[in-house]
Write a structure and sequence with these properties.
Low-confidence stretches: 412-417
Distance between the termini: 57 Å
Structural class: alpha/beta
Mean pLDDT: 93
CATH superfamily of the largest domain: Glycosidases
CATH architecture of the largest domain: Alpha-Beta Barrel
CATH class of the largest domain: Alpha Beta
Helix content: 25-40%
CATH topology of the largest domain: TIM Barrel
Oligomer: single chain
Shape: globular
Number of strands: 19
Strand order of the largest sheet: 11-12-13-14-15-16-17-19
Number of domains: 2
Number of helices: 13
């Protein structure tokens, strides 16, 4: 049994939020496990042997509330102390990244190294403490210092690499994109888009295009394509193939046990879309999140076949268009709940190794709602996650990033009426916090030499968006602080005068 004792104010905790919690193995792949909490003890009955850790939402004073991971430990009868293991996990990862980033004894990082040293000393005291409650308190102090130091390390590292990238003119000329909602008026959005963004992502949703079999609704997409084709902002399409609940037409479930028919229907859907819009769209997300497929029980081989088919057809019909394979939920939490899915890095590696013909990977970072894959991670975790995709040999595009600007529940939100209690950065989400987080994220992402573009997930607030209050504009298209922040950031990075549009 893997178990953790949780202490609060000197005694065992009476309650604990385990939403989003999962067990993770030594290779960072989530494991199936039954997790429960009783009498101050978290119990994890995992279905695989070997060391493992626990990931759960945990508040770190002054830093925020994040999904954090313990160090990997062996099963034993005596419970581990949660705060101590969380601190050990973070300090171990800091040490690994200091080596990986070449920041050991780096000039200018002395103060950060001192903070890490302070956290390490507190951890040693926690491990030597006689009383579990005292150990937990010291572990929490160590964790707080370590998390804040790791975020500052990420910021320091990104500043060094981003400066080098700018000095060598290695930043692409077109780096910022944004997706839109098709029921927003195209003419109203065009000025805001042209003010900041280098390209626009149009959602291609099979469920909306073909609501009933062989009955098509092209009008919303046609209107946007026609409006954008008049201007200078290029168009990207996302995504040709997705099996998420919001993408699959209801009538397709009739064939859920007939893979060959679904593959043929998907082939025809992709062919129709590219034939209709191929002359206007310069880049395609050919497949999005099918590694985390939630609607059908496809096998590993079938998922790879669908990826290969869509890529080949896209290259045949749109040979000049960039083909992007998009990964969602990059920490792979879904794999702990559904073993018929594929961990994101394994799927990405197989796509490369099996010779699928595509140009780049896309990656989503959506945070805020208390939904698997959307619990908030701190910037150190995000930076380390991006690094894990650097060895795949393909450019990376951040195809969707979003955090909220408010925590108010709005009727009709995609989060199904749930509050935005999936974590926070520094303090509860506001327009100013959203803007500050956006800047830090963009600086970290674009400091990575393999990251080519960053795209915000939705231009304006909308009742159906994945992250409520996640737009850069309010529902009336008035700009938020994050929109203005991005305008300033673009000018700083590219050394160009600020555009209009505010």
């Amino acid at each position: 049994m893997l178990s953790f004792a949780v202490y609060c104010n000197g005694r065992l905790a009476e309650k604990l939020n385990l939403s989003g919690a999962y067990v993770v193995g030594t290779d960072d792949v989530p494991l199936r496990a039954e997790i429960s909490f009783k009498n101050g003890i978290i119990s994890c009955k995992k279905r695989a042997a070997g060391p493992a850790g626990l990931a759960l939402l945990w508040e770190v004073p002054e830093a925020g509330s994040f999904l954090l991971e313990t160090i990997r430990v062996q099963e034993r009868d005596k419970p581990y102390i949660l705060q101590v293991e969380l601190a050990r996990g973070r300090l171990m990862r800091i040490h690994h990244k200091l080596e990986d980033w070449g920041l050991l004894d780096y000039e200018g990082a002395e103060d950060l190294a001192a903070q890490v040293g302070e956290a390490r000393e507190l951890l040693i005291k926690a491990l030597q403490a006689d009383e579990p409650a005292q150990a937990a308190a010291l572990g929490q102090q160590a964790l707080s210092i370590a998390v804040q130091a790791s975020e500052e390390l990420s910021r320091f590292h990104s500043s060094v690499l981003l400066a080098r990238r700018r000095q060598t003119n290695a930043l692409p000329k077109r780096i910022f994109g944004c997706s839109v909602h098709l029921d927003h008026p195209a003419e109203l959005s065009r000025k805001r888009l042209a003010g900041v963004f280098d390209f626009v992502i149009l959602p291609i949703v099979w469920r909306d295009i073909e609501p009933t079999e062989q009955t098509f609704n092209w009008k919303p997409l046609d209107a946007w394509v026609e409006a954008l084709a008049k201007g200078p902002v290029p168009i990207r399409g996302s995504s040709l193939l997705s099996f998420g609940e919001k993408s699959v037409p209801d009538w397709l479930y009739i064939w859920e046990h007939d893979f060959d028919t679904i593959r043929d229907l998907a082939f025809e859907h992709v062919r129709r879309v590219i034939n209709r819009y191929g002359q206007y769209i310069q880049a395609w997300t050919i497949a999005s999140g099918i590694h985390a497929n939630t609607c059908f029980t496809f096998s590993f081989e079938q998922l790879m076949e669908l990826t290969r088919m869509t890529a080949a057809l896209t290259k045949q019909l749109s040979p000049r268009g960039m083909a992007v394979v998009e990964l969602i939920h990059p920490w792979g939490e879904y794999y702990a709940r559904n073993q018929r899915t594929i961990p994101p890095l394994l799927y990405a590696d197989m796509a490369v190794q099996s010779g699928v013909n595509f140009d780049a990977f896309g990656l989503q970072f959506l945070f805020g709602p208390a939904v698997d894959g959307m619990y908030v991670r701190d910037l150190f975790q995000i930076s380390a996650c991006l690094d894990s995709f650097s060895k795949l040999g393909k450019p990376l595009h951040i195809t969707a990033v979003q955090v909220p600007s408010d925590t108010t529940v709005v009727k009709g939100d995609a989060a199904d009426g749930l509050p935005l209690d999936g974590g926070m950065w520094r303090q509860p989400w506001t327009e100013q916090i959203q803007a500050e987080w956006l800047r830090r994220f963009v600086e970290i992402a674009l400091s990575k030499p393999f990251v080519e573009t960053v795209s915000w997930h939705s231009l304006a607030d909308h009742p159906r968006q994945d992250v409520p209050h996640g737009g850069l504009l309010r529902a009336d298209h008035a700009p938020k602080a994050a929109y203005k922040q991005l305008l300033t950031l673009r000018s700083e990075l590219l050394g160009t005068p600020p555009r209009g549009g505010v």
